[in-house]
């Protein structure tokens, strides 16, 4: 993993996420160099300065995009807004849940992302799926070169990611070239669902996943018999759970196994394992909608795949980074071993040979993108050549 900030995993994770989404190294250096000293005081302290530096770069790119638009250079404007959105999203993600400026920052990020996609004519369409009096927002990417209903892979977030992060890391583009559509989703507990609608996470992920399948079955451009579900990070819990209880999914996959997330939280209380965001315990209570640590600790025993996976009777892929510092490798083996009734199960550990050895391959997604998209295409009726 690229470790710009000495001894600060959380800030380095943020920087690596930005790089995987398309950040430019010169812009990253301009944002991060002023933060080197404060970064050494810990990952919670200095997050407001982090926001200021990263938002400053976002505003700089927004200004450049405005100049491009004035000159009719709309594609270039869209590209710059796309990078601005990356920096604004990373800055927002790092803040404490109740830090008031993050609300305006999230709105600015959303505006940049949506205008950037439109101006750059990207293969990306916003969709809204009715759910509990509100909606779940998603980004729909169409399969390329497909006539008639296409297969689709639904992609869900982890603890702190968003649909835009899933889209920018690039799996939807890889799948589109292989004849597979994508839906990147802000499920309850993430992205818009949490920030704008107050929809918190739930351990029974099939409750919202089934509503997504209901929606996809209404679309004439989707083959209802070829709907897959993939999760990243904590999605490595959500996706297997949903596939186990929603039989309409044709396959499942995880990019980072998360067999017993509750157990991992107990280890973190003992300072075992890295955290993904600053202000971690505030963040997890926000995500899960608990009012205290006692309430949160009472919930976490439910967040396990023990006794669940034997219900899965479709192909399933488990991938994990060999050097994952957040979720130990043993949990990937536990998930794989639990898939006793899957007719086509596979465990792929990313090692130094391939790269992508850290959590959900945040250090290098290239090999994982190829591997997962090929595996899915081969089983959902896409193509790999």
From TrEMBL:
Pfam families linked to this entry: Peptidase_S9 (PF00326)
Which terms under GO biological process does the entry name?
Answer: proteolysis
Question: Among its keywords, does the record have Repressor?
Answer: no
What's the name of the protein? Answer: Dipeptidyl aminopeptidase/acylaminoacyl-peptidase related protein
Recorded GO molecular functions are: aminopeptidase activity; serine-type peptidase activity
> What highest taxon heads this organism's lineage?
Bacteria
Q: Does the UniProt entry include the keyword Secreted?
A: no
What organism is listed for this UniProt entry?
Deinococcus aerius
Instruction: Note the InterPro entries from the entry.
Output: AB_hydrolase_fold, FrsA_esterase, Peptidase_S9_cat
Question: Which residue ranges traverse the bilayer?
Answer: none
UniProt keyword annotations, A-Z: Aminopeptidase, Hydrolase, Protease
The residues covered by the Peptidase S9 prolyl oligopeptidase catalytic domain are: 211-381
């Amino acid at each position: 993993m690229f470790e710009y900030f000495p001894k600060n995993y959380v800030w380095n994770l943020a920087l690596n996420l930005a790089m995987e989404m398309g950040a430019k190294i010169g812009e990253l250096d301009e944002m991060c160099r002023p933060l080197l000293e404060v970064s050494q005081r810990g990952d919670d302290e200095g997050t407001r300065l982090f926001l200021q530096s990263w938002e400053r770069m976002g505003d700089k790119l927004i200004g450049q995009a405005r100049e491009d638009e004035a000159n009719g250079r709309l594609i270039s404007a869209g590209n710059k807004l796309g990078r601005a959105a990356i920096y604004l999203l990373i800055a927002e993600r790092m803040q404490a849940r109740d830090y008031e400026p993050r609300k305006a920052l999230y709105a600015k990020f959303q505006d940049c992302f949506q205008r950037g996609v439109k101006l750059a004519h990207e293969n990306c369409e916003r969709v809204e799926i009715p759910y509990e009096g509100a909606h779940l927002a998603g980004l729909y990417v169409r399969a390329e070169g497909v006539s008639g209903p296409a297969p689709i892979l639904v992609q869900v977030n982890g603890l702190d990611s968003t649909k835009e992060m899933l889209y920018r890391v690039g799996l939807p583009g890889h799948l589109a070239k292989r004849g597979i559509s994508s839906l990147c989703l802000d499920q309850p507990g993430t992205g818009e669902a949490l920030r704008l609608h107050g929809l918190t996470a739930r351990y029974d992920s099939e409750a919202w996943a089934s509503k997504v399948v209901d929606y996809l079955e209404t679309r004439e451009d989707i083959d209802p018999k070829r709907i897959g579900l993939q999760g990243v990070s904590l999605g490595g819990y959500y996706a297997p759970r949903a596939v186990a209880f929603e039989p309409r999914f044709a396959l499942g996959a995880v990019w980072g196994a998360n067999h017993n997330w509750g157990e991992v939280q107990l280890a973190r209380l003992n300072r075992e394992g890295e955290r993904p965001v600053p202000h971690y315990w505030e963040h997890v209570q926000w995500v899960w909608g608990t009012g205290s640590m006692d309430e949160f600790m009472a919930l976490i025993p439910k967040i396990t795949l023990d006794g669940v996976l034997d219900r899965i009777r479709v192909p399933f892929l488990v991938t994990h980074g060999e050097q994952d510092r957040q979720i130990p490798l043993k949990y990937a083996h536990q998930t794989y071993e639990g898939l006793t009734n899957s007719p086509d199960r596979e465990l792929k550990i990313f090692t130094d040979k391939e790269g992508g050895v850290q959590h959900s391959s945040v250090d290098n997604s290239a090999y994982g993108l190829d591997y997962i998209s090929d595996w899915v295409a081969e089983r959902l009726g896409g193509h790999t050549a």
